[in-house]
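Milestone M4 deliverable, item 7.
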Amino acid sequence: MPTPDWQNLVVMFFDQAARQGEHPFLWRKRQGRYEPQTWREVAARVTSLARGLIGLGVAKGDRIVLVAENRPAWLIADVGIMAAGAITVPAYTTNTEADHLHILRDAEACGIIVSTRRIAAPLLRAAAQCPSIRFIISIEAPEPQPDLGAPLYAWQDVIARGDGHRKNIVADAQAIKPADPACIIYTSGTGGLPKGVMLPHRAILHNCRAAGEVLSEISSGENVFLSLLPLSHAYEHTAGQFLPIALGAQIYYAESVEKVALNIREAHPTLISAVPRFYELMRQRIMAEAHKAGGWREKLFRATLAIGAKRYAAKHGLPLGLRLVDRLLDILVRRAIRERFGGRLQAMVSGGAPLNPEVGLFFVALGLPVYQGFGQTEAAPLISVNRAGSLKVDTVGPPLREVEVRIADDGEILVRGPMMMLGYWRNEEATRAAIRDGWLHTGDIGRLDGDGHLVILDRKKDIIINSGGDNISPARIEGLLTQQPEIAQAFAAGDRRSHLVALLVPEEGWMQAWAKAAGKAANADMLAHDPDFLAAMRAAVERANAGLSVVERVRRFAVTAEAFSTENGQMTPTLKLRRHVIQTSYRDLLESLYD
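Output delivered:
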C-alpha cells in the first residue's frame, strides 16, 4: 500500500482531502448513532481554524496545548495548529492541575484548545498561573471563567473568524519542512517528570509509509479504523490518526472504554490498534462467556483454542483430518466471535507494552491474530511489528524498513533511522543521554531471534535484581499471574530481596461467583483477609509459579481491593503500571510480605 512521498503532514492531509472529497472520513456518535463528516468538510474546518489561529497572533513555531477526548475536533485542531505553522502539544484529559502546569510552563505554550467543561477545570486553573498563555479556545460552549489571565474564545467563533480571511493555507503548507517539529508529545512516563519529545514531520511520515506497507500485507480494500486509545499518546497519534489519513481511510471514534465492545459492532472496523490490557480484558470476557455457556458450547470453544494452537505451531500445516475439523470449528465458533468484532476485522495491532504470548496465541487460535509491535514516543513511535505470514506471538516482529536495531552489551535495544525524534524540548542533557553516537537508547532489554524478530524481555530500569544477584523480569511474572482467571491485575516486587512478592487485584466476575458459591458477601475489602478466599488466590499463584523458575516464583502475596488505575495514578493513560507509585502507595504492605 505505497503512499506518496509527502514532505509534511499538512500537505499529506490536504492532498488526501482533495482526492477523497465527499467520501466519509470522521465518524462520531450523536444521539445514539454514528454520523460522518466528509473529507471536504473536515478540510474546510482545518483551513478556517488555521486562519483563525493566525488571526489570534499565532506564529511559526508557537506551541499550542491540545486537551480533548477522541473526536473529530481533535484531528481538526491538530492539523489546524500545524497548518498555522505552530506546534501541537497534546496532553491527556486525565492530567491533574500539576501535570498541566508542568507542560504549559515547560513548553511555554502561547495558547490552549480544550473540549468539555469537566476536562477544562484543572487545565484552566493551571493556565491562570502561566503568563505565556495568550488565548484559550473552548470546543464546547464556554462558560465565563474568572481570573483566566487570557481571553476565552468559542471554537465556532474562531472558525467563523477564519472564514473571513483569504490566506491560502493549502499553498502555505508547502513551506513546512520535513525536519520542522510537528508536535511535542510529553512522555507519560512510569517515573519522574514527563519530558517533551520533539517529533518532526518526517518521523511520523516515515511511520505512516512503513506501517502502510505492513498493513497492505494484511488488509485489502477499504480501511476503517476505530480510534480508542488517547490521541495524546504517540501510538494513537500516529497509528490511529495520521496512518488513516495516509491511507485515505475512515476513522470512527469510540465513545468510551466501557462502550468499546458496542462501538466495535457498530463501526465494523477493519483495523483495531490497542494496548495489551484491551486484549487481556477481551480474552477474559470471551473466556467467561464460554464458561457460562457450559456444556457442548464450552467444549467446542476449548476445542477451537486447542486446534488453533496446533495450527499455529505446525510448520507444515495440519493433517487432513484436523484441517476438516478446523474448518468446521471456523463455522461453528470463530464466525460468531468475528461478528462480535464487527465482522470485517482484518488486523488487530498491539503496542505500548509487552503482550503476553498466551493472549496473542488465544486470538490467533480464534482466527483474529494480534500483530504485536514495539516502539516508543522518541521513535514517533513505531520501531518493529509482526508481519502477515511470519507472525510470532512471543516477538514484536522485525524492524520496519529503514530502521536499524542492535543489541548493546548489557542487552539494551538500540535503534536508529528516519523515525527518530529531534530531541527533548529544551533538555539537551536528557537528549544526549538518550541518543548516543546516532543510536536511540530505548531503555528496553531484548534480543533478536534467528528470524530477525525482536524479542522484548523487560524495561531496563524495571528489572528486579534480587539479593542473589539474579536479574528478574517483573513483566513476565505479572503476565503469567494475570493469565489466571482469578487475577485481573498483578504487581511483582522484590528488588534486593531474597524472594519475590506480589500485589493481586482479583477479577471482579470471578470474585462475585466465588462469594456467591461460598455464601459470603462479595466485598473485596473483607475478602482480602478471608482465609478461604486467600486459599483460592494461592491456588492461582501456584499455577502461575509452575511456569516460572525457582528465583522467579512469588513466595508471598497480598490482595488489594482497589484496582490499579489512571484515576489513582497507579497506571499511565496507556494502562502501564506506574511501578514507583505502586511501590510507594503500598510500601508498608509490601514490607510486611518480606518479613
